[in-house]
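Narrative of accomplishments. A recurring question from our advisory board has been how the design workflow behaves on a single, concrete structure rather than in aggregate. To address it, we present the structure tokens for one chain from the evaluation set, followed by the sequence designed for it. No filtering or post-editing was applied between the two.
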């Protein structure tokens, strides 16, 4: 039986979809798989927040710079928003669990808001590693006055960028009329996606690629420069302090490196959408893998590698730390390795 779709391929009002009955199978159950790892990951995010606050109150020598930590919290926040948005936008609809409901729902602003919300989380996630690299660069270039410059950078650039850019770019989809459409092969009948029309989808993909390339190139250009610069800035410190500083730097570098996989997978999906639309559904699984990888790996890598969360090492460092590093919260030196 051949199903005839309207020009925009909307499934709204189509009897075959309105009467669609979900079969519980492997494909359907995949909609619940992400919760197996997203719930523990959310708990780890909360643990990181609590341990940081405790370390800050105790003036722990392994404590993380507050500006870096705020940026990482933004990274956490936008990753969770993007996970929720992408789940409602693609993961859940493609399972077939909401096909009948979506076919009976009038296309309009609820569908558009789902797409807009997903892109808002996406753009915030893309921006965070780049902004964190800027802060780390300021800390390396101005070790004695980085507190003042980082606060200035946060107020004048980081906060406006992380709020205005994702919000304004995600508003591109608002004029669209969102709806549900059937996904092509290899997806089965009933696997759908919340869509914003071809015209707005192309614009969103181009905007996504532009911001993704800009932030990715900027982030790794700064990271490459800092990789060599950090060797010089720690050459005059004690071995103990140098070791902790490098561990912290490595931890943050690995944490921010979690954006490499989603950059590659999302780029493949985006370019396929623009230049080979027939095969776009075949590579959509890469989008889910890449995005969930970033959401999962970023907090876990930070938790298991940063000295702040390694109890035994922190305890040893607390016994005697002889380095004088300028605290970003003031312009007075303190006995601390709080640099990253």
């Amino acid at each position: 039986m051949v199903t005839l779709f309207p020009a925009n391929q909307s499934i709204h009002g189509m009897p075959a979809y309105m009467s669609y009955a979900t079969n519980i199978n492997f494909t359907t159950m995949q909609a619940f798989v992400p919760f197996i790892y997203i719930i523990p990951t959310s708990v780890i995010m909360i643990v990181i927040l609590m341990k940081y606050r405790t370390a800050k109150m105790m003036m722990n020598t392994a404590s993380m710079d507050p500006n870096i930590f705020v940026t990482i919290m933004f990274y956490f926040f936008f990753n969770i928003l993007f996970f929720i948005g992408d789940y409602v936008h693609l993961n859940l609809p493609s399972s077939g669990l909401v096909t009948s409901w979506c076919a009976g729902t009038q296309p309009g602003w609820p569908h558009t808001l789902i797409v807009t919300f997903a892109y808002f989380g996406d753009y915030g996630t893309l921006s965070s590693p780049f902004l964190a690299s800027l802060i780390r660069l300021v800390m390396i270039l101005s070790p004695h006055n980085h507190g003042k410059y980082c606060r200035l950078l946060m107020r004048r650039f980081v906060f406006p960028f992380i709020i205005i850019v994702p919000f304004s770019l995600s508003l591109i989809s608002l004029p669209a009329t969102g709806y549900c459409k059937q996904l092509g092969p290899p997806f089965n009948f009933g696997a759908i996606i919340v869509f914003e029309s071809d015209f707005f989808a192309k614009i969103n993909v181009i905007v996504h690629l532009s911001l993704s390339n800009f932030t990715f190139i900027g982030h790794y250009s700064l990271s490459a420069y800092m990789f060599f610069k950090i060797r010089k800035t720690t050459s005059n410190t004690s071995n103990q302090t140098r070791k902790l500083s490098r561990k912290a730097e490595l931890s943050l570098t690995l944490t921010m490196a979690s954006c490499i996989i989603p950059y590659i997978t999302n780029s493949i999906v985006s370019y396929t959408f623009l230049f080979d639309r027939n095969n776009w559904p075949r590579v959509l699984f890469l989008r889910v893998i890449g995005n969930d990888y970033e959401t999962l790996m970023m907090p876990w890598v930070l938790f298991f590698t940063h000295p702040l969360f390694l109890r035994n090492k922190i305890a040893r460092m607390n016994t005697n730390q002889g380095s004088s590093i300028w605290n970003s919260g003031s312009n007075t030196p303190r006995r601390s390795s709080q640099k990253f």
